[in-house]
Every structure is written in structure tokens, then in C-alpha cells.
Amino acid sequence: MGLESKGTGRPSPVLSVAIFLVAVGVMAYLRLFLFRDTLITLTYGLPLLPCLWHRDLRLLWSMAGAFTVLAALKAFWVLPDQNPEDFYEVVQWSFQVTNIVAVGVAIHMIIRLTERLAKANRDLAASNTELEQRAEEVVRQNREIHEQAEELTQQNEELTQQTEELTQQSEELQHQEEELRQQAEELQAQSEELRSANDELQQRESMLGTILASLRGGGRGERLLDQVCNSLLSLLGETAGGAAIVQASGESLLVLSHAGWGELTEAQWTFDRSFASVIMERDQTGYVDDLAARPDLIVPSSPKRKFRSILATPLRVDGRPVGAVEAYAKDPQHWTEEHFRIIEWVAAQCTVVIERTRAEESLRDSEAKLKAALHSMTDAVLIADVDGRIVEVNDAFATFHRFESKEECTRRLRECPEILDVFLGDSQDPAPPEQLAVPRALRGEQATNALYSLHRRDTGDTWMGSYSFGPILDAADAVVGSVVVARDVTEQMRAIRERQHLESQLFQSQKMESVGRLAGGVAHDFNNMLVVILGNAELALSDVDPASSIRERLQEIVRAAERSADITRQLLAFARKQTIAPKVLDLNATLEPMLMMIRRLIGEDIDLAWKPARGLWRVKIDPGQLDQLLANLATNARDAIGGVGKVEIETGNASIDEEYCAEHPEFTSGEYVTLTVSDDGRGIAREKMSSIFEPFYTTKDVGKGTGLGLATVFGIVKQNGGFINVYSEPGEGATFRIYLPRAEDDAPETEHRVVDPGRGTETVLIVEDEEANLHLLENYLRNLGYRVLAAATPGEALALAEGEPVELVVTDVVMPQMNGRDLANRLITSQPGLKFIFMSGYTADVIAHRGVLDEGVNFVQKPYALRELGAKIRSVLDNGGD
Questions:
Q1: pTM: predicted TM-score of the whole model, two decimal places
Q2: Confidence of residue 41 (pLDDT cuts 50, 70, 90)
Q3: Domain hosting residue 692, numbered range
């Protein structure tokens, strides 16, 4: 092949000029110097051969012209010994010109032929490339097409080789052209076959694309099967005149789709003796060339169609035959392998359609059941996609978020999410977005009963939710969404907090009850010892000269015993075992005389404010207990202030309803009179609030408090059926508010004070199981002039009373064998009108109910001063008691 100009496809002009100059030079040298008269054809022909290689016709004829001029120059001008007019030179020149022209014509024809062959070769190469591309597209569907393409490649290589041989052997040109024509015809036939196969493949691809597009678009199964059935007729061409897709249904064949039938007479065909039943039983493709030869088969028909031949293949779903795909021909037909491949391919598409349809129906059914389950759930349910967008919520979700409908809920939360504040548990700060349920679930977290607090800014609603959430995973365990289930647990949490509060109250009550029993037992035993100490000290004082140094020591003993007695009274008050005699009082009138004492108690640096309420209801309480209440609260306020400050005492009326009691279980509904003592002292720390009413608990320095003041207040309030509330913050002071039940009888009672003891001569029976107390009382009463009978046990008392009459019995309440009340009942049967005085450290409900003395009972609280006992004895003997 010659050299060509870049990008033009033509011989290079520069090379053409070079070849021309070299060839003319060589020719001139050969003809003028070497071979003047010999080798004419050879010398003129050889220089022209480069034109065959270069394939430049202009160069060929330029060189031929140049050689002709050179021949003329040699013949007529160069050789002087020759006569130019000589006929020989003319003939010789003509012969040389003829040779030049003949060689040029031959080379010209060879170049032309070579160009045509090259063009044909290029066309063949382009055709081969196109055939290879088409062969690659259909290689999966048709092996024969692939083999034909390989043969075409081999033939093309042979043509290339033949082209090279033509370049070397010009004499075989005609034979090669004939072969090329034959090969061209073969290629044409192959091209037609490839075109036909390509058309079939495109038709299949179009059918498959239509089916896939319908599947993606959610097309109905019936329409998809109609498309498949019509495509089967198109693929089979004129061979088939009808097609049907049938499915076995009991004893019948249900026609799922048909084409080419016109109107069917029946939508169901008989399964028995049908060709479909044979195909399904064999589970392979089969055909009948001429149905006339198979009278055992029942072939369906329509009013406009009668068929003579049938081709069918099983329709498989889940790997088992459930029906058949059938093609029919109007005339007897020989079905080929190509027909088999087509109908089997169509059956495969039908399987895809049916399985997809079944899957969609199952999915729709599952979705319907899921939605029904979601909307029937009382728990709020949210389903979100992988981007956190809401996919589905149920009606309970809207109710949970305080919306009227789920549409409004999703719209409002999507458009304005800031209307909802979400908090983790009891946190006061809104939870960051990444800590919310959906983002946590999308990160793969799972949780059960995670507590969140929610607040609607637009409505002000606040509630507590229990959340359970987790990710939704696909088959590859990749997160594709999340599900969140929430439940309103506001009432449950309130109930839990209330239960915890009640449990705390119960624990505190049980603890106080236990401490109270302990304190009561200690006080009882201690009181008996104080009676001995205080009584003997008083007796010793009466026998000692006033100027004696021993008198001062005895007085110190009395003062210590009295302080000890105060402690036991406070313990008994806390334990609610203090014996009291409540009276109906006007709280304002009773407290006002005490204010002077309170002012002295708290000191001059503290201002005392008194705020009595008008129209105050009456209360029923022991006046002595009221003294204790006010004194202890005032002392506590003074110590909390520790310097200059203010104490405020206020009274009032209060009605407690059921709603308040629901929030404060320790209260009981009703009408109450309140006594409030407030101070501006240092306040009480939150962690100490639960312990301030415990006995011996104090925050004061050592030696500055017994820890019984507030415990006494607590016991007195509880003993009188009241309640006490404390409000305090560190550095903000404290307020103690006491609620005492309103008295049913509003008439205040007059208090009778005990007068000075006198002397007497009556017979007094003393019953005391403590021997020291018994001897003390016996000696004291004898000194007062009384005739005394002493008994250490109830049995001894009964025996002594039988011997002589007795005017008064002074008995302990708690004793072995029998208590003081039972002893009195025994004695009074034998001596009606007998008078009694009961003594005890606490009453133990023998002569009192919850510490309140029974009507007509004369009682002396241990420890007592002998003068008080003497006065009580004289009063009972003279007047029958208080």
C-alpha cells in the first residue's frame, strides 16, 4: 500500500514528485547510457512499477508522458548519427511509446482494480464489525448467530489474504472477483438471517420492556398477561393464529388470557382430556401437528376460530406446573425448536407476572392487615424511612400528641416541629435531636420503656411517654427505617410517684411509731424513778432547816428532777401517750395571754408579730398542750434566726377538700383551724426535712437542744387529730402551719385550777406496784393526817378493802395481775360511791381513749409533785374532782 496524505486518503504529493524525479532519472540513465537499443519493454516497464505500489494515477501518466518525451528525445535528437526522418526511428519510437502506454494501461487497470478491492475490503470490514456487534447483542439468545458471526470473521480473514494475493498475482484477479461475488451473496444471506434474528430479539426485548415497565408501574396482572399473550402471537408470526394462557382450577381450566380467538364461548375449559392436562402431567413442552389424528383430545374453539394444530408448554409457579401456555394454528403445523424456545420464553415471562401478581396481592393483604392492626392499637405507632421521614402513623399517635387527627398531627409536626418540646426523663432541658427516638432507632439502637417528657408549646399540654423503638432491617441487615411505639404513662407515673410518696409516708409513720413506742416505754419507767426522786427530795426539804447547806443541794435535785420530768412529758407527747384533758377553746383568746411569755422566750432582738383571724372557729385541745406547741415552735424559730429577725404567729380557718387530699395523702378532708408560726431564719435543707420531727434529732450545737421540741409538736398535733406542714428553703426562713380540727361544740369551756393541798383524816387506799413509790406516798399522806392503807398488788388491795370502809383509792394504772380500771370496777361493787384517783406515766388506753381522759376520771400524771397530788386528793374528797 502506498503512502497517503494525512487525513485525505490520497497519495502523498511530495512522495509522488520524488518518485517521478527518481524514475525519470533512472529511465534517462538506462535508455541513454546502459540499454540504448535493448530491453525496451523492461526498461520502460520497471520504472512504472512504483506507481503500482504508490497507486497514484497522475504520477503514472506523468511518468508515462515523461518516458514518451525521453524516447522521442533519444530517437530524434540525442543520437546524431541517426536520421530523424528515417522510418526505422519512427517505428522504434512508436514501439516504445506503445510499450509505455501498454504498461501504463496495465498498471492503471491494476491500480483501479486494487482500489476497488480495497474499497470492497473496507466495506466488508465495516460489515463484519456491524455483524459482530449484532452478534454480541443476540449471543445469549441464539448460538447459531454467534457461530455465523465467527464464520463471517474467518471469511473476512480469507478475503484479506486473497486481497494480498491479488496484489502479488494480478493474473488471478478475475477468479478472485468471482469468489468475492459469491462471498458477497453469502454475506447478504447471512445479513438477512441476522436481520431476522435481530428483529425477533428486538420484539422480545420490546415485549420484556413492556412487561418490566408494567411491573414497575404496578400494572394489573390481567393486563400484563394480555400483553404477554399478544406478544406470543407476534413472535410466532403467521405460524400461529391463536394463543391462550390457562390455569388449572379443580376440574376446569381457567382462561387467564387469550389472543386471536375473538369471543370465547366459555371462560373455563374442561381440564380432563385437555392438552394442557397432558403437558402439566409430563411437565415438558409438547405439540400435536394435526389434531384430527388425536380425537381423544378436547380442543376449545370459538365461533370464528377452528384450530388444527397446538403447541403448549407448562406454566410453572414456585417450581411446579399450575397451568399451560398454548399456541394454536389453523392448519396442520410442524412446530420447530425455534417455536419451542419462543413459547418457553413466553411461559417464563408469564411465571414472572403471576408470581409478581401473587406477591402484590399478598403484600396488599399484609399491608391492609398491618394498617388495620396499627389503627386498632391503643399505643401510638410511628414508622419512618431511612431519612427519618414519616411513612405511617396510627390514630393513637395523633391522640398521644394531643391532635384531633393523624393528618393534622403529621402536618403540624412536619411544618412546625418546634411546637413540641421533648425531654429525656425528668430533665429540664430539651433533648438534642440525636437523642430522640427516631434518630436513635436509625442508628441501630433498641430501647424498651424509654421515658420522655413532652410539652406542647401551643396548647401548654404536658405529658409523659414510654417509648419502645428499634430499626427496620432489610435482608442484608441494613437499616431501611425505624418503628416507634409510644404510650401515655402520665397517670401511671403520677400513681408511681404517689405510691412512692405514700410508701415514704408509711415508712416515716412506722419509724415514728416505733420510736414513739420506745419513747413511751422509757418515759414510763423513768417516771416511776422520778416520782421517788422528786417525792423524797420534797420530803427531805420539809425536814431540813432553811439555813442548812443541804437544802440548796436538795433544791438542785428537785430542779433536775423537774427538768427530767419535762423531758419525759415531751417524750410522751411525741409518742401520743400523754394523758390530756382537751377543752373547747377560742384559739385567739387562749394564745393572747401567752404572747408575753413568748416575747420573753425569743428575746428582744426578735420582733414578734401576732395576726389573729376574725371569726375564728373553736378547737378542742388540752390548754397545756397548746402551751407546749407554741413554746416549742417559738424556741425553734428563735434558734433558727440566731440574732435579729422576725417571728410571726397567725391563726386562720381552712377547709380541706378531697382534691387537696389526693395530692397530700396525709391529710383528711374537713374544716380546720390553722396556727402558723413563721420566721426569717436560715431555713431547712431539703435533705433534712424528713428527719426534723424525729426525737433527739437536732441541728443545734451540743448542749443547746434536746432534739425533742419539734418531736413534741408532731406528737401533740397527731394526738389531737391534726396535721402539720412545713415550708422552707435554705436562707429563706421556715413556716410551720398546724391544722387542728374544728370543734363541734363552739362554746368554750372554763378551766378550773387546782388549789393548795389541805389536810384530812379520811381513809385512803394506795395501790402501787413500785415499792419505793408506795412507801413515799404512804409516808407523805400520813404526814397530811390521812389514815393510809398500802397495797403493792391489786390482790392485796382487794383484801384490805374487804376489812374496812375506804373513802378514796389512789392507784397506779399499769400493774401486774390487773390494771387500775379493772381494780376500780371490782372495788366499786362492794363499796358503791367509792372515789378513785389514777396515776400513770401514760394511760395505755385503760382510762383514756388515745390519751384523752374518759369522762369523770380523776388522773395524776407521773412524775408529779407531792403537793399537786395532795391537792388533787383533797379536791376529789371534797368535790369529786375537776
A1: 0.39
A2: low
A3: 583-741
